[in-house]
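Pipeline run #58 for the internal structure catalog. This entry was flagged by the ingest filter as a single-chain record with no existing model, so it goes straight to prediction. Upstream metadata was stripped on purpose; only the residue string is passed forward. Reviewer on rotation: M.T. Logging verbosity set to normal.
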Amino acid sequence: MNWRAAVVLAASLAANGHGAESRQERGKRVVYEALQALGGDAFLHMQDRVEFGRAYSFYREQLSGLSVAKIYTRYITAAPGQLGIRERDSFGKVDARSNDLAESSAQLFTEEGAWEITFRGVRPLPDERYANFKDSVLRNIFYILRQRLNEPGLTFYAQDGDFYEHRPVEIVDITDADNRTVTVYFDQLNKLPVKQSFRRRNPEFKDFDTETSVFAKYHEVSGIKWPQTIHRERNGEKIFEMYSDSVQINKNLTDNLFTLPVNAKMLPKAK
């Protein structure tokens, strides 16, 4: 028996051990197994996170931006369907004296809006950019597991199992009360999310874009497993990669990270 057949047989025996599950029951089980694999109660009580590493942006598969990045995230209480995080994406160079990031620019996202912060001042980001950020967060599997599992109307539907990168995966469609759906691939062996995909309407061309994220190189930090490599594509083309050198959790991030600088010059909204 070759390795592929052996894995399929093992997965089949495991599935039979759960009895005659419905698609909905199986989907919910897989999602909650992923929550436990990521850290369970520790994951649910994660208050903030700092990811430090290299960020690459791409345009038509060509590298268009490279920077050292520090991503600050803090979870907040929010109503269903509303943004429940504040995020600051800081970019710059490593300070040789402190070995920390010397910020040259940043993007700030809160429940109230989104801005770019530079030495020139503060510029509100376009409405579409903020709407896409919010939509991406609401469909992000880690955000769903941390913030949205108890939302009314959230449903789970298991597809047939498959293989991804030569490993067996469970595939689950997660849909919320506003009919937003994300399809998530979970490793059958370690239960962790390895890929997600969703479709978003393109307002310019009146069709749909497919957004895909791939998660790899999980490390355990403070009892929580978090991917240190994140790769994003749109319609099959690379748009972003993040390689974290370090991830810190529950660092008691302060409000000043997520508020606009005092007396900063306010610039016209970006187009």
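catalog note: The domain at 21-258 is CATH 2.50.20.10 (outer membrane lipoprotein receptor (LolB), chain A).
catalog note: The first strand starts at residue 48 and ends at 59.
status: ready for reviewer M.T.
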